Amino acid sequence: MSLLSLEDVHTYYGEAHILQGVSLSVGDGEVVTMIGRNGAGKTTTLLSIMGIARARRGAVRMGGQDITNLETHEIVRRGIGWVPEERRVLPNLTVLENLRLGTMAAPGPDAERRLEEALEYFPRLRERVAQKGRFLSGGEQQMLAIARGLVADPRGRDGSLPPPLRDGPGPHPVRGHPRGAAPGPHDPAALPPALIPLPSGERAG
Ligand SMILES: Nc1ncnc2c1ncn2[C@@H]1O[C@H](COP(=O)(O)OP(=O)(O)OP(=O)(O)O)[C@@H](O)[C@H]1O
Ligand SMILES: [Mg+2]
Model-level pTM? Predict the structure, then answer.
């Protein structure tokens, strides 16, 4: 069973019919990349998964369960992480405070361990835990956005831990698997990614 799947998803902005039947699936331990020209609907697809842009037709499923109409915070609690393209690092909070905000999506005894793991992945962030977000370089902010997605505890229903969904260009930079439980090579970048092309600016799917 897929960890995450979209079945014939149709999403609109007002009357504009943007996603016209997007279907895809992500298996456990699989890295999936969506490619498509500007305006093709990549971000809208991710927003539809997160319940930020609502799929008007079709279904988004996680571990087979329909999550299409759940509130975004419920979707996050189910284990889908999100790394926004524009990063949205809070400029007046420190690196550590930004990360603690991420852990609030999944509080509990595990949160500190996840935070520690994230700092292990990104030693540059560890060196800058007390630095305010606004003083980070663009790349460092990107690291922080990814680390914040990881500490929110994205996981499959079977307890496996996929990398968070990442919007925007470039390969997924997260090395390894925070729980070491993923099948296959340790480095997700070494996995053959499934490429999902979105064909045009108006139609996606
Ligand atoms: N809030 C919105 N209201 C109306 N139209 C929107 C909105 N957001 C995006 N669109 C339109 O929806 C289409 C898909 O946009 P989307 O942001 O999903 O593309 P994308 O594939 O992520 O593009 P890029 O590669 O430039 O990031 C575009 O035609 C865009 O103009
Ligand atoms: Mg986009």
Answer: 0.79
